Amino acid sequence: LSFQLSSLINMSRCLSCYLGSYFSDLDNHEKAKKYFKKSLEIARTTGYRYGEGFRLLNLARVEIQFKNYQTAIKLALQSARIGDEITRPQLQSNSYSDISLSYLLLEDYPAARGFSEKAQKYDDPTNNHNVFTLYGIITLSQKDTESASAAFQKAIAQADEILAKTPELYKALDAKGLAQ
After folding, report:
1. Share of the chain above pLDDT 90, in %
2. HEC profile for 107-151?
3. Do 45 and 39 meet the contact criterion of CB atoms below 8 Å apart?
4. Over the stretch 23-59, which tens digit does the pLDDT of each residue have?
């Protein structure tokens, strides 16, 4: 019975999250938000901290789509705190990167740069190319061409590394294209 209950909870948590991602991909951010909130509720109820962190991050990304950057920052900061608490580099890298993106969109370049530098401290091979591309864009916005060039070179190297292992990862190709 315990195993069955656990399986049902996991299935419900996954389904809500997948539906949120599905609707986000379809640019139906209202529905995405609804399902991410449900998945967050389940993660909190079950004590699944890693899932809680990523659901907060999903909600932050939805808020970025709505141009609610301050709300996105608050949600991503909560996610980052969980990542720091449970020491999960993937969550830390993504959270600090999304905080950085929100500040960039607010045109607060010093804050964007600071959080981007913080994101770089966490090695996440699935996100490093994005972190360095974002840093390059921020430093270019600050007219720091030397730092931007170095960041773009790192982004290309990181994208090439991940593409050598998973050539169908289109997000890495996107990052590489931006960096070139």
Report:
1. 63
2. CCHHHHHHHHHHHCCCCCCCCHHHHHHHHHHHHHHCCCHHHHHHH
3. no
4. 676 676 888 888 889 989 989 998 999 999 999 999 9
